[in-house]
Structure formats: C-alpha cells, structure tokens
Prior knowledge:
Protein name: RNI-like protein
InterPro entries: Leu-rich_rpt (IPR001611), LRR_dom_sf (IPR032675), RanGap (IPR027038)
Mean pLDDT: 91
Organism: Guyanagaster necrorhizus
Low-confidence stretches: 372-382
GO molecular function, one term: small GTPase binding
Keywords: GTPase activation, Leucine-rich repeat, Repeat
Amino acid sequence: MANTLSLHGQGLKLDSRADIEPLLAGIDPTKIEEIHLGGNTIGVDASVALAEFLSKATNLKIADLADIFTGRLITEIPLALTAICNALVDKTSLIELDLSDNAFGGRSVDPMVPFLTNNRSFQVLKLNNNGLGPVGGKVLADALFESARISKSKGEKSNLRTVICGRNRLEDGSAPSWAEAFAAHGTLTEVRMPQNGIRMAGITALARGLAKNPGLQFIDLQDNTFTDDGQLKGVEAWTESLASWPELTALNLSDCVLSGEGELPQLVTAIAEGSNPKLHTLQLQNNNLEAETFALFAEHISGNLKGLKLLELQWNDAEDDDVSLETVRLSMKQRGGKLIVDDEEEEEEEEEAEEEEEKEEVKEEQEAVLASTIEEPTPKKPDTTDELADLMSKVEIQ
C-alpha cells in the first residue's frame, strides 16, 4: 500500500506553525506518496510549515488538498496557496493535484500559475467548485496552454490526462481558452466540466479543442447549453467531433438543450448510428427527447449500440407504455445493462452503486489488515506529553 498521510475530515483549525508541526513530527516526508488534508482549514503560517514538509516529499504522487480553506479570508488564501504550490512545482513524481471545494474566486488563482506552467509531470488536475468565474478560468487555462507550448518546444509529449473543472461559472468568457489548452495538450482521456454556464459559442469552441484529443474516454458537459434560440452551431460542432473520439466510453450531456422542442437531435442520431462504438455509458437526462428519439434507440440498441450498458433518459417526454423504451430496456437487461427512465430506477441505480462502493471499501480494509500482518510497523517511542499524543492521534498513516 502507498505510504499515506491523512488528516481527512478531522475538522482541524490549523492557524500557526505550532498547530501543524506536531502532526508532521516523526514522519519521513521522503516516504510519503499520498497526502489527504480535506475537511480542515489551514492558515498562512500553517501552510508555510506544510509547504516545507511538502518540499521534502520527493516521492509524492497524490496531493489531495480539497476543502482546506473554509472560513479563511480572501487575503489569506493567496499567501497560503502560493506556499503550497511553490512546494509542489518541482515534484516530478506528482500524478494528481486536487484543489476542489476551495473558494478561490478569480482573485486567488495567480498562485497556481507557476505550478500549472512549470510542473509538466502531473496527469490529473481537479478544480471542482472553486468559484473561478470566466476571468479566473481563463488565467488557469492560459497557464495550461503555456505548459503545453513549452513541452512542444522541447520535443516532449504532455503528461496531462484528466481535467475536472465543474461548478466554476467558466461561461463563454473562458471556454475558448480552455479549448486552446485542450487542443495544445492533445493527450486528454477525461474531461469533466459540468454546471459552468457555458453557452453555444463556448460549447462550439470546446468541441473543436477536444477534437484534438483522440484518446478521450470520459466527457461530462452536463448542464451547459448547446443551442441558442433555435441555432444549432454547438450541436453541429459536437456531432462533427464525435468521430474524433474512437475510445469514448462515457458521455454525459444531460440538461444541455440538444435541440428545439419536438426535434430529433442530430447529435443523438450520430451516436445511435455508431459514431462511438466503445460507448458504454450515455446520460441524456432532461433534453426534451420524445418518442422519435426513443424509436431511434430501439432501432440501433442491438446493433450500433450493442456495447451500451447504461442509458439515462430521466425527465424527458416519455410515455409509460412507450414500446420503443421497452425494447431498449429488454435488450440492455439481456446484456447486463440498465435503462433509467424514471426517478425510481435512478434510486435503484444509486443504491447499487453505494453497495458496490461499500464492498470496495471492505475489500480495501481487508487488504490493509493483511498487509499489516505481513509487515509490522516500526514501534514508535511514546510521546512526551498528553497534548502531543492527542494531536498525533489525528494523523492517519497507512
């Protein structure tokens, strides 16, 4: 198992160096591969001390720093973030950085620019729910573009694989910059940008930028807008780009206004006719889909869509006795897949997913127990004070 330092969910308020140093005492930073600090709040002085620890973490692979600034002032966050990002900038071992659920806002993104520009080793970037806005989003996208430009100038291939940047109000103001960054890297396999208020112009730009990433497997653009007052440029651009993603397995275009009322979306037609043969998950909730679309799925479900395992169609205009949907449901059931049309089916799917997650957690716990019986940890010297013992009890090392 990875050597992990975890304070996750402890609810600690770490203001000063004195608050955090006892939690790091006795831990060899060179052996730490993962650090999880979410669910605590870290001030400037504590962040500086944390940065000193991180600067020595030469084998760090995962830096989970989501939700670490709750209650902090807008004047504090840039200073704390600067210290942390500067400590990570030269980490060639780093694979994933998660800074989700931190209320940066557009005014606090500049400290991330040197890291995004100069660390070209990381593969996964998670920036979900940061309140970036179009200005902040553009700053970060431009930094990623510059990173790709530098890599190309050195004859190197980008390592970036995953970008998750949802619930950030990116809007059309930053979408072209993200599109340029995605196109410049060309190596993405997963892009998730739901609930960003991106409208047709931005959606069109994103389609063209993402089309330069032939390895894309997962795309989530839920709750953005593909059409505008009957105009279909966004839909047309995405329909053209579908064939650029032969490896695509999961596509979420729920709540995206894919057509006018009563129209058969050309994007859905292309998918049904086999634009992405490896597709196994298709989410099209709340898109005003009607009987003609369901008939299209019924026609192709056993042919071009034979690999589909999950189809979500909630909150569309479906009749209870729609024959086409029954055809789709039966075909998917036979292959071990599932069609979800109503809330009850969605709840069942969520329950099944929770059960699978619980099974996985149990499995991980069993593996941890087995590992501990194989290799006993080196006994630690007793702490000198009750206060220090209490602090150390909050640190989880796996």
